[in-house]
Design a protein that fits this description.
The protein is α/β, with parallel strands linked by helices and 214 residues long. The chain has seven helices and eight strands. It folds into two domains: 15-129, Alpha-Beta Horseshoe (Leucine-rich repeat, LRR (right-handed beta-alpha superhelix)), CATH 3.80.10; 133-213, no CATH class. It has helices spanning 26-35, 52-61, 78-87, 104-114, 132-160, 165-177, 185-197; strands spanning 15-17, 41-43, 67-69, 93-95, 117-119, 125-128, 204-207, 210-213. The strands form two sheets. A six-stranded mixed beta sheet has the order 1-2-3-4-6-5, covered by helices on one side. The longest helix is centred in the last third of the chain and has 29 residues, at 132-160. 24% of the residues are buried.
Amino acid sequence: MLLLTHQQSIFPSQVLSLPKLLHLSDASLKILGKYCHDLASLNVSRSGQFTDAGLKKLLKGCPALQSLNIAGSLGVTEKGLGYIAAGAPNLGTLNITGCQDITANGLRAAIEGNGYVLEARAFFGFYPKADRVDTKLADEQVWLETKAARIIQVFVHGFKNGQAEKDFRIQACVQFSSLPATVKVSQRLAFFTAFFFLIPPMNVHVYTGHLVAV
């Protein structure tokens, strides 16, 4: 079993390579997920006895993961691939060569669900599109503008019907705190500003997901 503690230097690691560790287990991946929250790249190819359950625990604590190599992991199935797709929204590179219980159809479904990657030719898995970063930032910006516009519209409606401004600002804070972990600090600030500074005396309307002042 891989032993890690809070005090060890591996705690803040962003890149971790642990290939060919025959005793790497689900418990090992759980520890990584517990202590390596900033992990961006993990290589556990041809390592150990971990299964879908271990991947689930790993991904729960490592939302920033961008590259994952689990080639040769015979205990991982398409259920584990589903955990990867749901738990690693920033993942750009995935190597699942030799994972015998993952089919080509399963991989293609994961690629389609991700939207920012392409099927690899040199290995069984996927790699990031050339414009992945710019495209994803643009999509996130549209999402933020749409969410802010909708809630501001609710505020305008409530304000006209006598809803207290304080109640709205409490609601705004709740919505702000519920933003996904993948939303960057600058985008969070823009979202926060929309609530507290882009409200009446302007009249705000929603047009194709963007804020329009009239």
